[in-house]
Amino acid sequence: MNFLRRVFPIAGLVIAVASLSGCNILIPDVAADSPARFVQETSPVFYQPPGVDPRRVRPIPDQPVPQTRELYKTQFHQTYGLPVTNPVHMAMYGELRDADFTLPAIPVSRVQPQFLRQEVDYQTTERAGTVVVDTNAHFLYFVEGNGKAMRYGVGLGRDGYAWSGRGVIQWKQKWPRWTPSVEMVSRQPEVRPFGAENGGMNPGLMNPLGARAMYIFKDGQDTLYRVHGTPDWQSIGKATSSGCVRMLNQDVIDLYDRVPARAEIVVM
């Protein structure tokens, strides 16, 4: 009996091992003897659309890293969630009380940045205090000397109405009256009520000469061209006027205070 008690447990263990050997639990088959089969069975499976040969698909080239953010760009070149307006410009072109008038703020985010007032490097043979108008670039420079100038964006006259040359700013006026020339009245009869015989247009926010006017003379004669402000800020950088040099009202006030008496002006 003692012998049978010792033999039966061993025999049961042998039978159990034999029955489980068919499930490969104790001796798993990992195909270690076949590397090719091992790779085939363990390689990842990727999605392959029908009819697409992955060997013929070209890899996507590396894209350059963007240097500026263009997300959510609006028609006015603003990016939601990011500051896009220089606070200095907001101060320069904000609402301004001048004499009996209050100039509205200029929406600087809608003006091209190069046409906003800024000090720039400017090499010229003109002496300090001279005004230079670059009609091609739509810039007006007030020469400061030492290779520097204050630059402003300007609107100019259409082809056939512009003036160029060298003259003198012989007269300056704050909040001027506007008196259209005889030639302008003949071209635009609707401005006749503001002609010289009627005393011109009173100063004001809608006056075409704006907050300041500087009158250009040549050889002692009025050229009938002016450097002046304008309520039409959208005309800056364009050729839309009848020949004069127009500036943002906040800019023309700044220039007016800088220009000395009888300053030379060069329009080229």
Automatic annotation (TrEMBL):
Transmembrane segments: none annotated. SUPFAM superfamilies: L,D-transpeptidase catalytic domain-like. The active site is at H228 (proton donor/acceptor), C244 (nucleophile). GO terms for molecular function: acyltransferase activity. Its EC number is 2.3.2.-. Keywords: Acyltransferase, Cell shape, Cell wall biogenesis/degradation, Glycosyltransferase, Hydrolase, Peptidoglycan synthesis, Transferase. Pathway: Cell wall biogenesis; peptidoglycan biosynthesis. The keyword Kinase does not apply. Residues 129-268 form the L,D-TPase catalytic domain. InterPro entries: LD-transpeptidase, LD_TPept_cat_dom, Transpep_catalytic_dom. Belongs to the YkuD family. PANTHER family: L,D-TRANSPEPTIDASE (PTHR30582), L,D-TRANSPEPTIDASE ERFK_SRFK-RELATED (PTHR30582:SF24). This is L,D-transpeptidase. It comes from Rhizobium indigoferae.
